[in-house]
Amino acid sequence: MQTVHALDPLRNAVSELRTAAPVALVPTMGALHDGHLTLVREAKKRGAAVVVSIFVNPLQFGANEDLDAYPRQLARDSALLEAEGVDILWAPTAEAMYPAGFASNISVAGVSEGLCGASRPGHFDGVATVVCKLFNQVMPDIALFGEKDWQQLAVIRRMARDLDLTRPAADAILGVPTVREADGLAMSSRNAYLSAEERAAAVSLPTAMRTAIAAIEGGADVPATLAALEADIVAGGFRSVDYAELRDADDLKVLNTRSHRPMRLIVAARIGPARLIDNMAVNP
Ligand SMILES: Nc1ncnc2c1ncn2[C@@H]1O[C@H](COP(=O)(O)OP(=O)(O)OP(=O)(O)O)[C@@H](O)[C@H]1O
Ligand SMILES: CC(C)(CO)[C@@H](O)C(=O)[O-]
Ligand code: BAL
After folding, report:
1. Is ipTM beyond 0.95?
2. How many domains is the chain partitioned into structurally?
3. 138, 166 Cβ separation under 8 angstroms
């Protein structure tokens, strides 16, 4: 595995890779867990050479968020990626990503609004801007993202279509199902913020979501079920719920009644110092 920290060596290394295989990009912010490694394995299953980026992107953090606290473990991450057979680790410095005078911004209307777009103003502009740069830097044939960040995946797909960022194949941006701990909690780098007690309580989030999904699929009133879900999450030990919404799975339109199209239950809630997100399919 080659580790590169500046753009010219990255481009040279990727050009060499491209002669042998299609190139897959897996963007991350590091502090890697099995969710991230599953993205790498899915890329390798498709016969691609794999570029993993690790960059804790300041543009996507709000002023009062956890940019400084976010775990940085490059040596450990690098060993994990090497063991997976990753070809290039792209770990740009902040100066390489945002040179002095950087003044551009990518904003994706519609899908960025509401949900995390409402509770983290500016977040998806930061994500879209850095992911657009990563696509231009690596020019991958495919890119892989986790379904755990469902709204992020929708934002990136919209941006890639609008700005012609990937080859036209519909599957150039692959969404990979959420990898969970044995008790059902979605893996996240932010789970490391939790005390043992908070970690034990955090399982109430996916458990309460499954109860709400069974109710909605069984025909229960949607707003009443979402209100009960919020109450269950707080009763389970969470401090507060940023949102708990039923959305169309593809265009993310708000749903107040069951739809005949695939739906998604999408939630963000706070426990101890962590803000956790999760989402699950709701069948028509
Ligand atoms: N549990 C998971 N299963 C599948 N993919 C995941 C999982 N967790 C993260 N990913 C994906 O890995 C990529 C990088 O995510 P990121 O580095 O933000 O990790 P994270 O664990 O989600 O961290 P956090 O949510 O705490 O920021 C994203 O595409 C994200 O959706
Ligand atoms: C896609 C991403 C790497 C952009 O910084 C980040 O939002 C993440 O880790 O999901
Ligand atoms: N997993 C999305 C990155 C973030 O929370 O900032």
Report:
1. yes
2. 2
3. no
